[in-house]
Amino acid sequence: MSSKNGALVVFSGGQDSTTCLAWALAHFERVETIGFNYGQRHAIEMDCRQDVLEHLRRQRPDWSARLDQDTVLSLDVFQQLGETALTHDVEIAMTQTGLPSTFVPGRNLVFLTLAAAQAYRRGLKHIVTGVCETDFSGYPDCRDDAMKALQVALNLGMESRLVIDTPLMWLTKAKTWGLARELGGQPLVDLILEHTHTCYLGQRGQRHPWGHGCGACPACALRAAGYLQYVGEEGEYGLKSGE
Ligand code: ZN
Predict the structure, then answer these.
(1) Pick from 58, 66, 33, 32: which is nearest to 195 by CA?
(2) Which domains does the chain have, with CATH numbers?
(3) Fewest CB within 10 A of the end CB: N or C in the chain?
(4) Ion ligand 1 neighbours, Cβ < 5 Å
(5) Each residue of 174-197: pLDDT tens digit?
(6) What is the whole-number distance in angstroms between the Cα of residue 217 and the centre of ligand 1?
């Protein structure tokens, strides 16, 4: 199952990138992680990242043996570019462009370009990212076409054969929970519920059935709906209890 090739996971400490990290650890001999500090309104994401890595190592010694270095790059340049709801204290709302104010133009393109530079330098063939076209806020830089075009551009520009893997691209949020269960059973689902961070407002606060968060922002709403659907679907299959 495991490929001899290594992978670099774009890892933010959220549900999606944690599931991607588990996917990479199940498929590759050597896995590294990269994260970006881009002046998020809430540094809590960066704390959750470390928390998730620590718990994952403890839960799965076999994965821990494959999990190599973590790199965090500072990208506060996005704050200089202008205001979005993720970098400044502005309201989360739909804008005239038809995209929510949480959209940071160019962010994913820059993230993946820097990830490619790191993968090239570290001798890792695969870049794994949790972008998704299904169930999502419609960010254009998360779409399959954008990822495929970027892969071509990066390989031409670096004379390389890097592969951008997007294991969540066609999964609903409910199916993403299902994938986590497939990869690491209930302990991994529990780890993701307890330790990952999704909330746009940076609130940990209350522990809902689907994890921590304000419960009202679009990210919390998406996570909650996905989890409820997942629990419903698992119920249909007669939830594999005792696992
Ligand atoms: Zn929230």
Answers:
(1) 58
(2) 3-204 (3.40.50.620)
(3) N
(4) 199, 201, 213-214, 217, 220
(5) 999 999 999 999 999 999 999 999
(6) 4
